[in-house]
Design a protein that fits this description.
Blueprint: H1 2-18, E1 29-30, H2 36-43, H3 55-60, E2 63-64, E3 69-92, E4 98-102, E5 107-108, E6 111-127, E7 130-149, E8 153-174, E9 177-190, E10 197-211, E11 219-231, E12 234-240, H4 241-244, H5 247-251, H6 253-265, H7 272-293, E13 300-309, E14 313-322, E15 327-336, E16 340-350
Antiparallel strand pairs: 1-2, 3-4, 3-6, 3-13, 3-16, 5-7, 6-7, 7-8, 8-9, 9-10, 10-11, 11-14, 12-13, 14-15, 15-16
Helix pairs in contact: 6-7
Length: 352
Amino acid sequence: MKISNTKFVLALIGILLFQFNASGQYATKKVKSKYHVYTDSLKNVKYDYIFPIWGQNAYKKGFDIPYPVGIMANYMWLKQGIVIENFELGVQSDSNDIPLTPVDFIQFGDNLNTSYTVNVRPDIWVFPFLNVYGIFGYGNSTTEVNLTYPVDLKSVVEQNITTYGFGVMTAFGIGPVWMSVDANWTWNKPELLDDPVKVNVLGLRLGHTFVFKHKPDRNFALWIGGMRAKMGSYSQGAIKMADAIPQESWDRMDEIVDNYWAWYNGLDPDNPFDARKIEKADEVLTPIVDRLDAADGETTILYGMDKQVKEMWNGVIGGQFQLNKHWMLRAEGGVIGDRKSVLVSANYRFLL
């Protein structure tokens, strides 16, 4: 039951992790000499805008830089494993409240978060190689937590999450390819948590841009890369049993309760390890099981835990089509590693 609470936190996390990496663009690129007419036009550009700083110098050297200000709309879906440790449980009721109690002998199986988010990312190129952006989003997360000891119990929690944050991205050329390094920090506030969860994402991408022969301002870029996601480890929250336990678990509640008592009665009070489990069970687990047995779905379970994504790094591949210097469309997929994701976005850029 408590497990459900954990899910809330986890769920948040999933969404958070992927909302940020939509910011990378190939940024400045050197236009090949074979596009001599376009190259000459770039070198003759009189750039008198404030941003990006040193924009005039970039044009004089034949670099084609993006318009400095942009608004990007992103949609992302992802699925990833979650690891839960140092679990704490409590009960909140009209009477006989039970504070958070460590129950670190509880064991979990595979825990999974599936989420989607829609966010808006305004950005500005401060320098031709440095982009600064904000992130504002809203999404939904569903987390499945599987308890395997002392009983077999599944909890599924769904909730909405709001996100805000900021990031920086640098991009530069290396011979025929370009590389971008993108880092962002977001705070993700789920409905069922008191405090937002902080998530840091680092993205590395290496790609190449193919320019259209007769339209040098139109191009298609392909890249491969990796993404590292790390979240604030400790979370604390509360949830009603009815919201945390799916119907399939309620349907087998008699079996779950019987298995709990079989486990409890099998503990040896003379064994110091078992004696400690009995103490924690009497303090918080048994009161929860009693409420489950009574089908009291209105009881609020308190929880605290350390959680993290199962694998911090995953591999991505992506592409972007630039119709012109105003409009870009992109797609990226997380295809390597435990984390799977799909991102699609549209970007409109303009002179300030």
